[in-house]
Amino acid sequence: MATEKLVLLHSNDMHGDFLAEAKDDYHEGGVPLLSGFIKQVRNEEKNVLYAIAGDMFRGSVIDSEYRGFSTIELMNFLAPDIVTLGNHEVDYGLAHLLFLERCAKFPIVNANMYIKTNHTRLFNPYKILDVNGLKVMFIGIITEEVLASTRSEEIIGSFIDVWEAARQIGVIVDNYKTTKVDLTVLLTHIGFDKDQELAKLLDPNWGIDLIIGGHTHTLLEEPCVVNDVPIVQVGVGTDQIGRFDINIDTDEHKMIDYQWKCIPITSKYCQSDPVLEEVLRNYKNRTDRKYSKIVTNFKRTLTHPSRYQETELGNLFADLLQVDSSFEVMLFASGSIRLKEMGPIVQFQELKECVPYNAPVYMLEVTGAQFRKMMKFMLRDEALAEGAHSEFYQVSKGMKMVYDQKTHEFEEFSLNGEEITDERMLKIAIQDYHFKNFTEFFDVPVEEVLANKKARMVITDDFSIFEELLSSMNNVDSQVEGRIVIKRC
Fold it and tell me: Where are the domains of the chain?
């Protein structure tokens, strides 16, 4: 039996985490250290591949200032062998993404984004990479959030259901796996829970060996094996990288065994790549000149430790949008807050990294019964389960919800101390992404809500509100006040 070893490195959800973070006596993360580690492995091992499972974009002013072009340039120097799309790759628009793809010096695979009129795929569905005679097939699968993000572009569609995704994988394997492939990898961006669902649906005859995933920022200590398929994901950012050491039977063209580990990227173990340091320094110097101005100061560091609970930063941003507004409750998406803490000195750059989306805000009128149903859906069991990845909202001052997870009922559901009755009409506000996906995110048909009153855009750019108001404030503070209380089972 002839065997060969393959080292498969992988990242996911890097989100513009380009800069190393200083610790007590070392540095952690950042693309120069990450590149240094990858180059070290390439020098030590014969057969090495590096894959990225989506969401290279967003999270950094270096990314947003250059609308992803800076990220593509940095990734070109990082030199992945294969990449699949994440939902944030379409944040700057599909046309811009197709332009950025032309700038990439690495292949991008996606099997299930297509043009509706003729079912033409937008990207290559798969790529077979030849590593010194070893043939490795990668198939890219995207999250359903891409369809939501591009819903305004009616010509674009996607297979969003895992059943349909599994069927599509079978079609690709049957039609395109015409050469002897030694290893077949699904490079997905659908979330850890959906990866497990997908693995259950895979026909063993298709020969899928691994699933490398992203989207839910799940940091695993060991692979999760479902239907004999190992599933891995390595959290978020560039502080760590996944590593497979795989032994392959080159006569039978199959994986014999593997070892996997999640490796920290720190200056203790990695030499920084001087080329990437220089490229990154040039971008940072340019953005620093523009973004280093001080916007305000906080009384203390304010935090956003989890997107599935009331937080200090969540209350701050929800309240800022309600200042002098015509609506009663602001529902500010927790996922729009991209930093876990901010302050006490707040520079423009930090503010931009914390709330990067520049979103319009729409006002709608809902009945108390509709609003109660919306919030129950937000607090449903599967949405609050460990490892879940769903929409959650911070609420503005005056709103109070006490939810009993055991009975699935509100013990209190009030605004400014007054219980919200089913008949009451409420003016609420949400960002445009959530307005466009209202039915999916709130489980209330948007047509029912629009029958109450036509929606109206009341803010064209939420970030400009944050910048303007915070610039006029000092010693800012925000507390967790019990606006959202979840009584766990």
Answer: 3-284, 292-487
Q: Please report the pLDDT score of residue 369 as a whole number.
A: 98
R_g of the chain computed on alpha carbons: 23
| Helix locations, 177-247, DSSP H | 192-201
- Residue 100 main-chain phi, psi, to 5 deg: -65, -35
Q: State the DSSP H helix or E strand holding residue 400, giving kind and residue range, or none if neither.
A: strand 399-404
Given phi > 0 = left and psi -120 to 50 = alpha, else beta, which region is 27? Answer: beta
pTM across the whole model? 0.76
Whole-angstrom distance, CA of residue 404 vs CA of residue 389 = 21
Structure token digits, residue 446: 């948007």
Give the CA count within 13 Å in the CB-facing half-sphere of 287.
21
User: Does 292-487 carry CATH code 1.10.3720.10?
Assistant: no
In this predicted structure, the answer to whether residue 146 has a pLDDT above a threshold of 60 is: no
Nearest Cα residue to 9 out of 171, 244, 237, 274: 244
Q: What CATH class does 3-284 carry?
A: alpha beta
Show the beta-strand stretches assigned E in 12-122.
21-22, 27-28, 48-53, 82-84, 108-109, 113-115, 120-121
In terms of Cα–Cα distance, which of 330, 360, 322 is closest to 428?
A: 330
CA 471 to chain centre: 29
Note the helical H segments in 368-421.
368-378, 381-384
Inform me whether the pLDDT recorded for 289 exceeds 90.
no
| 327 close to 319: Cβ distance less than 8 angstroms | no
Return d(Cα 15, Cα 56) in angstroms, integer: 5
24-33, 115-124, 184-193, 208-217: the lowest-pLDDT one: 115-124
Class of residue 485 by CB neighbours under 10 A (exposed 0-12, middle 13-18, buried 19+): middle
- Which one, of 296, 325, 331, lies nearest residue 310 by Cα? 331
Contacts of 339 (CB under 8 A, 6+ apart): 304, 313, 350, 353, 354
Q: Residues 21-34: what's their mean pLDDT?
A: 93
